[in-house]
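note to self: dont lose this again. the chain is below, predicted strucutre after it. 237 aa total, dont forget to put it in the shared folder this time
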Amino acid sequence: MYGNGLYLDPMYFVFVIPAFLLTMWAQNRIRSTYSKWSQVANQRSVNGVEVAQTLLPREQMNDVRVEVTSGQLSDHYDPQQNILRLSQNVAAQPSIASMSIAAHEIGHAAQDRDGYLWMKIRSGLVPLISIGSTLGYLIFGTGLFAADSAIAWIGVLLISGSAIFALVTLPVELDASNRALKMLNDYGLITSEDERHAARDMLTSAAWTYVAGAAQAIASILYFIFAFTGRSRRRSA
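---
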C-alpha cells in the first residue's frame, strides 16, 4: 500500500477527515457569523477606525498606526511595524462585527505592548516554521523510503513545528479576544447585554477557526507518525 504512494494510504483520510470537517464547520461559522453581525449596527455607531481611535489612546498605544487594507477579514496587527491593519469593510462600517474585529486586533497590539509570553513564543517560531514546512516533508519522505528511522524522525520533528505553532496560536487568539471584550466594556463601546453577547459570538466564531487549524495540524502529524511506525514494524517482522 505504501509503495503506491504515501498520500494514497486510506488511513490518511481516517486521521484527517474529522479535522477537515471541523475546519469546514469553523469556516462556515465565521462566514455566517460575520455576515450576520456585519449587518447589525453597534449602538455607538462607531466603525473600526473609530474603535481604534477610541481604544488605542486609552490603552497608551498612541504609537500604533492604523491603516486600511484590501480584502475581507484580512484584519491583523503587525508587531514588526507596529501597525494595525483593518480591512475596508471593518474600517468603514459601524457594525458589531467591525467593532469586535477591530478590538480583537487591538488586543494583539496590547499583547505586544505587554510582552505577552505566548505572543513572543509564536513570533520566535515563525522562522523555524518556514524552514520546517519547506524541508520537513522532503526529509520525512527520504527517511521513509530509505528505511532510515533517524532521518524520518527528523522530518517528523520539522513537520511538527506547524502543529506546535497552531497550538501556541490558541492562547494568543483567546487572550486577544478576552482583552477585546474587556476594552469594549471598560470604555463604554458596548452598551447592553445583547450587544455584549453579539460581540462574544463574533469573537468565539473566529476562535473556532484556530481550534480547527490546530486539530488539522495535529491530525497530519499523528498520521505521519502512524505511517512511519507502521512501516517500521512491517520491516522488522
